Amino acid sequence: MALIACGQFSATNDVLANLKICRSLAARAAAAGAKALFLPEASDYISSSPAEGLTLLPQSTTLFLPGLCLAASTHSLSIIAGIHAPSSSPDLVRNTLVYISTTGLVSHSYNKLHLFDITLPSLTLRESASTEAGSSITPPIATPFGRLGLQICFDLRFPETARALVNQGAEILAYPSAFTVPTGRAHWEVLLRARAVEGQCYVVAAAQGGRHNEKRVSWGGAMVVSPWGEVLGRCKEGEEAGEPEICLAEVDLGLVHRVRVECPLRRRTDVYAEL
Question: Where is each CN hydrolase domain found (predicted)?
Answer without folding.
Answer: 2-253
